[in-house]
Amino acid sequence: MSYQLETQLAQTGNRKDPATGAVSLPIHLSTAYIHPGIGQSTGYDYSRTANPTRTALEEALALLERGDSGFAFSSGMAAVHAVLQLFKSGDELIVSEDLYGGSYRLFHQLEERTGLNFKYVDTTLPNSVEKALTTNSKAIFIESPTNPLMKETDIEAIAHIAKSHNILLIVDNTFYTPILQQPITLGADIVIHSATKYLGGHNDVLAGAVITKGQALAEQLTTIQNSIGAVPSPLDCWLLVRSLKTLGLRVERQQSNAQALAAFLQAHPAIDSVLYPGQGGMLSFRLQREEWVPLFLERLELIAFAESLGGVESFITYPTTQTHADIPVAERERVGICARLLRFSVGIEHVQDLQNELQSILDGLVGEDS
Question: Does the annotation mark 172 as catalytic?
Fold first, then answer.
């Protein structure tokens, strides 16, 4: 029987221990497994290669993203790095010009050391993507929405371009999660998550995820995952399974809060601009004055001034010195990541409490300047 996504989430990891009927998924801490005989296996030999708790998580990830296979990694960047192992020296990837600073840092390092080439393009413009392609192009890598400027890309349009050129489409779906967007159903070949963020949702687990379409990619990622060994612990896998059960509820509340706060910020005189795609729990905004940024951040009490995102607690991040500090200043400013920009991960707190804090701080900044 086919179930709705919310039902699948609530049932994540259930009925995985028929011997006891345990409702909560068991945590299999064993790193080694007994072989019945030569050439015989229970399906588990060594925990780096496969672990029952991780298997339950990976099956859930594939199901939620409507992919064929799921792979769990020790962090989002480990997941990105694993996907890049699909390519060789001289290969070129077309990449969103506005993207997470950690991805930019990794791309730059690999470009210097391995001969991979990365071409940065405004992927919200399909024609620009098409024009950027060369005979060396092997994949298109996009964030949608982008981090931190919240630009959405037409995934179906980019997928059409990728298919027509026989190259891969890779989508980082961290911000929207499978609740709001399922890129594989739109034509993507690979989906990546920093599972630390919304999938984990509680700021207590570091993990990454890759979901693939088709047997060939699944076989390649299986080999890469086993070879690299950057897998999450059984406890981290269990924490993610637990968190997935409430993903739909969390995203619904975070989104409703973000929509209300985006409207509030847009109307406040201390705010120059609000960047919000209309859905999801992430938004960015620019203050009218750069000198207000440290004052604003120092006066936060309920909202945390911290890196990361997607948790039940609200976070505000300063990309200039935190998530995007490794991107050269000229490049940051060219795409719009200026020193007045703040990124807001809206949590599940009561929206009025969040708005009251923002209003108090912003009103104070305007009042002091008058």
Answer: yes
Q: Which of 17, 33, 44, 48 is catalytic?
A: 48
Q: Work out how many domains the chain is built from and give that number.
A: 2
- 245 catalytically annotated: no
Confidence (pLDDT) at 325: 86
pLDDT tens, position by position, 185-236: 999 999 999 999 999 999 999 999 999 999 999 999 999 999 999 999 999 9
54 is catalytic: no
Query: Which residues span the domain enclosing 333?
Result: 247-369
Selecting among 197, 250, 253, 340, the annotated active-site residue is 197
66 labelled catalytic: no
Count of residues for the chain? 370
Does residue 19 have a pLDDT over 90? no
Which one of the listed residues 100, 120, 176, 318 is annotated catalytic? 100
Same domain, yes or no: 159 and 210: yes
The whole model's pTM is what? 0.96
Domain boundary pick from 244, 276, 310: 244
C-beta separation of 150 from 337 below 8 A: no
